Amino acid sequence: MAEHYSSFSSEDTRWLLQRVTAVFLVGVLAFHFMLLHFVHHAAEITLAGTTARMQQPGYFVTMVLFLIAATFHGVNGVYNALVNQGISGTPRTVIKYGLTIASVLLIAQGIRVAWVMTGGNLI
Known about the structure:
The chain has 123 residues and is mainly alpha-helical. The chain contains 4 helices and no strands. α1 packs across α3 (57-84) and α3 (57-84) packs antiparallel against α4.
């Protein structure tokens, strides 16, 4: 019988963060669907309403944390899937740093958009 291999180790911080972000994402996604699909219907969603929601500090922080958690969870999952498929050496290093740079850029742009949605100005 083949031995099971996983790049995740239960003693690894990334393993724990993958699980913590999954739980957080499920909770925030449920909040999102409840608020934006049941409380407010799609036809009622406007830029003014989005700006009003984003101006609430709790909502803003929740959405930024949602962005960070989703980015980490997705990128970490893709990276570990590639490692589990056997990528190693230089390609693994290139993928790791490429995904890290893409993640930082995605998070930075997402925070910029969230900030503008609060009515704030960018320098």
